């Protein structure tokens, strides 16, 4: 039987941990395995891409400062091929890198130093968003296929990240209702968020670019309150 110091390898979803600092990588592995996850590791960007290609993990924990290939390049390469959830790790104060990571399709970020328990909670929250349901959501020319995790606009497929997909789903579930940033963070990110609300704003910006004409939808900014999804004919 495994004790607290040597947790058994988990049998749950697989997480690829990409971190060049061996101590931090081992700390993350310990807590993820203790929570029941399977864990595979990489210590540089090239190894990360090779590991992702061979293992096809359910989620990637990705440090941005990596040898061989930086984390932003790794994130970009993964996003060209799949919607695998990506949680990026950044140094305190590197706001530009965090925003760049979100722009490239990362789903969430944590700032070092971080709480391992919070990291596990965020991993769980991201993976919960990948569980399919059995509904289609429709508004205007947009059809969101939840079990297939696909979105079409006027019959044409639109490529969204997991977070963009979940955010659009949340907006479609509450048409015409003003949704605060706090509500969206709790519903989409799935935990009590302590960072700034720019996380929501960045993803809304990308949704507007990807799901615009001819969707017949508008994502309105309600100053001081949040966002509202309405039809253009309104």
What structural keywords apply?
single chain; 234 residues; alpha/beta; Arc Repressor Mutant, subunit A; 2 domains; 5-stranded parallel sheet; 11 strands; globular
Please give a structural write-up.
- This protein is an alpha/beta fold and 234 residues long.
- Helices cover 38% and strands 23% of the residues.
- It has eight helices and eleven strands.
- It has a five-stranded parallel beta sheet, sandwiched between helices.
Would you list the SSEs in sequence order as H and E? EHEHEHEHEHEEEEHHHEE
Major beta-sheet overview: 5 strands, parallel
DSSP summary, beta strand count: 11
| Percent helix range | 25-40%
Structural domains: how many: 2
Secondary-structure blueprint:
Elements: E1 14-18, H1 22-34, E2 38-42, H2 45-55, E3 59-63, H3 71-79, E4 86-91, H4 95-103, E5 108-112, H5 116-128, E6 136-139, E7 142-145, E8 150-153, E9 156-158, H6 162-173, H7 181-189, H8 198-210, E10 217-222, E11 226-231
Parallel strand pairs: 1-2, 1-3, 3-4, 4-5
Antiparallel strand pairs: 6-7, 7-8, 8-9, 10-11
């Amino acid at each position: 039987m495994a004790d607290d110091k040597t947790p058994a390898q988990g049998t749950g979803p697989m997480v690829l941990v990409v971190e060049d600092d061996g101590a931090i990588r081992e700390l993350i592995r310990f807590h993820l395995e203790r929570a029941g996850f399977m864990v595979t590791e990489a210590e540089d960007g090239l190894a990360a891409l090779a590991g992702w290609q061979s293992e096809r993990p359910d989620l990637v924990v990705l440090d941005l400062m990596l040898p061989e290939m930086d984390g932003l390049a790794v994130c970009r390469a993964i996003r060209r091929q799949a919607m695998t959830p990506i949680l990026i790790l950044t140094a305190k104060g590197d706001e530009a890198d965090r925003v760049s990571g979100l722009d490239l399709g990362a789903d969430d970020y944590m700032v070092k130093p971080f709480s391992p328990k919070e990291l596990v909670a965020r991993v769980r929250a991201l993976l919960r968003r990948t569980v399919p349901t059995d509904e289609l959501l429709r508004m205007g020319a947009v059809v969101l296929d939840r079990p297939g995790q696909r979105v079409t606009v006027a019959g044409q497929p639109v490529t969204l990240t997991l977070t963009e997909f979940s955010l659009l789903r949340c907006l479609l579930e509450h048409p015409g209702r003003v949704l605060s940033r706090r509500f969206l963070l709790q519903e989409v990110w799935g935990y009590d968020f302590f960072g700034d609300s720019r996380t929501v704003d960045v993803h809304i910006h990308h949704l507007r670019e990807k799901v615009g004409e001819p969707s017949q939808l508008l994502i309105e900014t309600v100053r001081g309150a949040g966002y509202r999804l309405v039809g253009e004919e309104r």
